[in-house]
């Protein structure tokens, strides 16, 4: 180990130290405990500065991790997501008097896990990063210890997560067995030079690895847990749950596929094709029937996983860029949408049904406008960034000229058009229907920055996308 | 010792499947959890066999990490089961389903 | 001159923002005035630009203004800008002009409604989107407008969606339209893939000389036409329009008669170069247009809801427009689009005035004899029905006969289009006068229901009068050569429309005058016959109507029930879709867990039960689905 | 001799695992699992993975299973009630799916992997020692090791937080 190794993980180290400080504060501090959130934000800011202050590229810790524009792009998304989750949590936790240091500490640990997933250049790190992301989430989903729904969601998430981890690990075992390596480059080397024990074993390993990813990003049929877990988790956690793991899962998935398995595409593309088509269709069609906003957004996020799977399937430079753009926009938009849901939610998990949104425009014009913007962007209307994300991903698929890809895009477009229906339902309720009670909704100022970032990204990058496009292109470039 | 690699893999596969069957069949969350542990152990067996076959210690190191994970997961999982038991007085997962449809 | 172009869309956008953000501090009246002023601004700018145009020679009549470059990355460069040429000039004037009158009318009509500010802000937003659609010089911007108007339409209908049934109808409208829009987007992707640009003019320049197979153009234009079919309510995607009548009447007038629904016709005219390269598509457009025209007209005969009659009449008239563009007479299609905006806007507003006077009653059977009570509405409506029926001298006559003549003179076995058109014209005359007579003449059925009808305030009747004048005079910009005119309208649009080989445009210039006059005579006779028959049935001998209904038996029932198309759709499309949604939903549902299936030994019940019970919050079921996924992956890999 | 022993342990392992999964009494299941893990440890020894074998006994059979036993006792878990009817209808489907899964797995792995375990790594005997694994752990696998420590920290926090009665 050398200093440069240590430097390469400084942002993670900063977050870990902050998390430990939070744990100490939890013991020392008496309520009110507003400082927790600020400490966590300070840690994230420090990590962000370190991320940029150390202009290092290359592989570290004996090739375990790789730093490049790709990992930096994603780390920034992760840190923004984490900061947003912290800000949303402040007013949310205050409602239930559960403001605790563990909450923020676990959030930071999960963020470290995501960052390692994006940096990973070895299946060992990928696996540990995935678990470091998952285990804090199991706990956070069950954070409301006295609510049965929260307990139940946590148990389901943990048992099914562990179940799918079993397949994931068996996949790694088979890959290791067949290629004798866990390093991304070494695996590709073994496949290309045919140094495998058995090509069938490599493929089986890849197939099982895919199960782990598919579970994490909630592709059908591995998505069954998602709606239940999203519904049962505290809404502030749902916001994090529907963005962080999905972005991290897709990023790691894309990186593994492009660095190690690109040459075997012809053996497995059909699987991803079917999963993508199924995911978007099931996600959208089911979302139409949901009246609970959390469940509706859960199925919506399933559907978005389907669109993103298109980018993974295509696997070209363009599609990788499209995915970077899509992920950045998706993360901020979904986080903001759940943030609004979290703020509107009443004390005992009330106001989660669509009827609770009637006339919201009158009770809180700001939240209604933000929510509308988020819905419009998720639905993919121009000129929002959500439209551009879809456009980049789908046009990359069409540009391959492959008939199957084009059909998949047609399915995706039909789906995203149908999805407009359920995205507009809350909008109609908010603007077109009379509120049940007219009292203005109290609005916490703490969460405002989250929504401003949402506006900035959704509209700003929707109309003037160049900045995001440039960093996305650079990020995608590091993979090839 | 002359054991074909394929046989060990077959044992690992069978053990893994027994774990899967346990997850699918049992209604007690604790037993389901134990079945997941069986699955992880099947993976470990495969790793050790491959490590032996390749003459490469990496596989065994990986097993070490899987054990770490197992310990962490079991601790958290049992804590969740305990906290659920406090609220519901059961660990039977067929009775733990408020959320559906 | 071009610098003012953006003002056309800016005004309504400002109106939307003011009403939307500051609405709560405005009085009802102020809100209406602001909205109307915004549209007035657009109208004045468009009119000023048009006047400037007329002074220029034909080939210089083009203004473009690039607002900014969107996504300038690599080879993809989308210029967001507007294009003002004769075609978009006509459209912008129609949208802002008719829109202005409808805005003013709404001030009176919506008085006292609690949602009036919201209403005006969305009406402005709609105008903004519609103007974007017609002014766009780029298909992406056009698509933005296209989706935007659909969105506003949905929101404005949703305004009245208080009950579940109407909400479901809204969902139907929505999904039907999505099918069409999917076609549009796929066409965009194909075009971009082929030409590397989505600028309308660049594509139009590149397309004719490009080394591309016919099949490509047929495919893209068919996909675009699919979008047009959805938006313009043609067979088979028309079912949503009658349902959309749930919205307030001025909305029906503006969106579902005068502007939005004609966007499909505009789309084809705008891309006339592409369509001219795809004769197969053109034939399909013409055929679908004429079938829709006839079919919808026959439904309109028996409808009793005054707005439904007008809705089917709109579908039918849109069919005429598609017939026109389908035979290559693009300018005739746009001409009819314009005159239709005048008289159909008038008819809807008149109907609104009647409904207003009867406190919301829409059933023709509860009307009758309203001539005395609603004098202004009566005579303006008379102008409207005469114009749509095609009485010589009114606007509808000129535009409809140009279409019929274009259809007739297209010698490719398409004369039957003309015949169908003539028959439809007779039916149109009949059902429009049926509506007119049943409303204003005959037995005053409203007396029994206890209504106190009253004429509308002048803020509502003045737009009626203005539209009535337009319905009369609007046709005189396009007097055909056969009647001694020069068809200025056609010459004005000529530079921006493609010339479709065959007859179409050419026939308008070199007509065999005698024949054209003869055809006009025939259509006039047919129309007068239709009117006379309506007069006999509904004024002279009111009992005849029921006799007729009985004698026509099956036909009447078919027409009355709209050929059971709604039911068929419900059965074939909506139900399966709902069933799918419901199925997936139930799939997770717990209810049937241990009940029905346990005891039964039937294998089928067991399978369906297993599927239904995969449902359900039970971890095992979720895990088993995961395992199924794993098995799928392994099977795929094994087979591969 | 060792070969025969290996197959013997494998058979015992599978039998014990089946017992864990199929009997109704949770206490028996825990004990069965301890026995299964002991067998597994023996197999690790036969595969010359001594360090892992020791860990298997200490961590798995020792710490983890004691934790399970403790929770089973704490919650006083009763044996599963038998379902009405001999076997729950779903179990058939689950069983068939598991069968399909394992046969697919064996078929896929079976393609080409007929190698004998001893063939390529004859000279690598002894690499499973504590020293070897430890060295790898603290050199090339240093970063994963550190992440694993974070993982345990998280588990610690979570367990304390979730299982604590009063806040």
Notes on the protein architecture:
The complex is a heterotetramer of chains A (about 475), B (about 100), C (about 650) and D (about 170). Chain A has about 475 residues and is mainly α. Chain A has one domain. Chain A has 21 helices and two strands. The relative contact order of chain B is 0.13. Chain B is elongated. With about 100 residues, chain B is an all-alpha fold. Chain B has helices spanning about 5-25, 30-55, 60-90. Chain B has one domain: Helix Hairpins. Chain C has about 650 residues and is mostly helical. Chain C has three domains: about 1-135, no CATH class; about 280-560, no CATH class; about 565-640. In chain C, β1 and β2 (about 75-85) form a beta hairpin. Chain C has helices at about 5-20, 30-55, 85-110, 115-135, 140-160, 165-195, 200-210, 215-230, 240-245, 250-260, 265-270, 270-275, 280-300, 305-325, 330-355, 375-390, 395-410, 415-440, 445-450, 460-475, 490-495, 505-510, 515-540, 545-560, 565-585, 595-600, 605-615, 620-640; strands spanning about 65-75, 75-85. The longest helix of chain C has about 30 residues, at about 165-195. Chains B and D meet through α1, α2 and α3 of B and α1, α2, α3, α4 and α5 of D.
Number of strands of chain A: 2
User: Rg of chain A from C-alpha positions?
Assistant: 21 Å
- Stretches with pLDDT under 50, minimum 5 residues of chain D: none
Terminal CA distance of chain A: 27 Å
**Radius of gyration of chain D, rounded?**
20 Å
| CATH-assigned homologous superfamily of the largest domain in chain D | NADH-ubiquinone/plastoquinone oxidoreductase chain 6, subunit NuoJ
Indicate the overall shape of chain A.
globular
